[in-house]
Amino acid sequence: MGIPASQRLRKQSDFQQVRSLGHRNHCGPFVVQCEPGPEGSDSPPSLGVIASRRVGNAVRRNRGKRLVREVFRRNAGKLPPGSRCVVVLRSGFTHFDFAALEDQFRVACAKITKSASRQ
Prior knowledge:
The protein has helices at about 10-20, 60-75, 100-119; strands at about 25, 30-35, 45-50, 85-90. It is of the alpha+beta class. The termini are far apart.
């Protein structure tokens, strides 16, 4: 399954734009930065994942990115349409199971949706 390429952030400029203009939510195992989409947009939300070497070796970083992509795939409908999100993994994500990661992401989605509705 996975996330289609059209829903992934790939360019460095896209990551930088979301990180500078988006709202930041600290969620324990990761930080979610989200830029709401334009009004009336019907495009699906996009995702970019950052896992630095502080997270761990390549195996741990790739596992974390896979987990975040799966959490996003399951909960993308909870984000505003057209929004672009960057998730920055923290080194402590391994202390959380999948259900806890998903709960943390849902809380972040609720905060993002709430802040997007205010604007």
